[in-house]
Amino acid sequence: MSRKVKLVTPKEYAEIHQVAYTTVLYWLNNGRVEGAVKHETPRGPYWELPVDTPRPKKMSGRPPLTDEEKAQRAVEKLGLPLFDQTPATRPKAKAKKSTKKGKGAK
């Protein structure tokens, strides 16, 4: 037997979960609300969300480092050069000739 789930609009979902309507739209556009359905109509799309869907988890902060990034940071901390890196060298600037005229210059 299929269970009938009450569907709500994003505005109602925002009121239920006490968040801004624009935040709910952001979650929907990024696929963070499970069970949300987007309907296309000639006048434009609209969303329906199950009322019992929990609020998405907060994803704040920096994402965890990959193993390669951890290894690179460890090497940098020890001060060892990486094999695939070549030092960036700039050509030395040439000395400019002086254009000052002395007392004896004509």
What does this 3D model show about the protein?
This protein has a three-stranded antiparallel beta sheet with strand order 1-3-2. The chain starts with 6 loop residues before the first strand and ends in a 28-residue tail after the last helix. Helix content is 27%, strand content 9%. The mean pLDDT is 82. It has a domain of 44 residues. It has 106 residues and is α+β, with helices and mostly antiparallel strands.
Give the helix/strand layout:
Elements: E1 7-8, H1 10-17, H2 21-29, E2 37-39, E3 46-50, H3 67-78
Short description:
This protein has helices at residues 10-17, 21-29, 67-78; strands at 7-8, 37-39, 46-50. It has a domain at 7-50.
Main sheet, how many strands, which sense, barrel? 3 strands, antiparallel
- List the uncertain runs: none
Shape: elongated
The helix/strand series, from N terminus to C terminus, equals EHHEEH
Strand order within the widest beta sheet? 1-3-2
Rg result:
31 Å
**What is the count of helical runs?**
3
Provide the β-strand percentage band: 5-15%
The overall strand count is 3
The N- to C-terminal Cα distance equals 107 Å
Helix fraction, binned, reads: 25-40%
Mean pLDDT: 82
